[in-house]
């Protein structure tokens, strides 16, 4: 019997006892794959745009960053789905607090180490949940629904704030953001000939 046939037979014969375990394993797999797919192109672009060093050093950093992102996301999914399965098994159903507790524990142990990759991931999520909580507050009636278009003012505030911080307190900004802004706003002030005006940055 082939592995594929055995797996299919397992799913059909006893789906209830084994499904949570198989879902955890697939979650681990999906976390690893998604982490690699997201990080590799990002690391490639940022490394070749802003990172100094030999070609070997650059590819070493790209692979290390990809591995770290993939490992962390896979580990987090493993912890989250395992704790969710345990709590559901104990209480007999999914509780409203289960996702928060499971993710809280996973987030502490996986993303609690303050490095550049974890910082990027956590700050990315922070921006998303800020908007999500604002939408939820409107839906639940905690704040009234604005009678004007919010997005232009939101965008203006974000850009105004980040450029003010960059000009006067740039040390507060995350490294990759600061590097991007140096390239856009500082390096564009430096040129001495046609070559470094159009073809090369410096």
Automatic annotation (TrEMBL):
UniProt cross-references to InterPro entries, sorted A to Z: Pmp4
Top-level taxonomic group: Eukaryota
GO cellular component: peroxisomal membrane
PANTHER family: PEROXISOMAL MEMBRANE PROTEIN 4
Protein's UniProt name: Peroxisomal membrane protein 4
């Amino acid at each position: 019997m082939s592995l594929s046939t055995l797996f299919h037979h397992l799913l059909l014969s006893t789906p209830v006892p084994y499904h949570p375990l198989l879902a955890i394993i697939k979650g681990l797999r999906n976390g690893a794959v998604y982490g690699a797919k997201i990080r590799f192109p990002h690391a490639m672009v940022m490394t070749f745009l802003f990172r100094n060093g030999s070609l070997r050093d650059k590819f070493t950093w790209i692979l290390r960053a990809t591995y770290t992102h993939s490992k962390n996301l896979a580990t987090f999914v493993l912890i989250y789905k395992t704790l969710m399965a345990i709590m559901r098994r104990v209480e007999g159903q999914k509780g409203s607090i289960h996702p928060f507790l499971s993710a809280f524990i996973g987030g502490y142990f996986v993303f609690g180490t303050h490095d550049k990759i974890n910082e990027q991931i956590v700050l990315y999520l922070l921006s998303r949940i800020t908007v999500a909580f604002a939408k939820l507050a409107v839906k639940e009636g905690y704040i009234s629904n604005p009678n004007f278009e919010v997005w232009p003012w939101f965008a203006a505030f974000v850009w105004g704030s980040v450029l003010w911080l960059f000009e006067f307190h740039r040390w507060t900004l995350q490294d990759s953001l600061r590097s991007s802004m140096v390239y856009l706003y500082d390096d564009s002030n430096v040129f001495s000939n046609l070559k470094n005006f159009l073809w090369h940055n410096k």
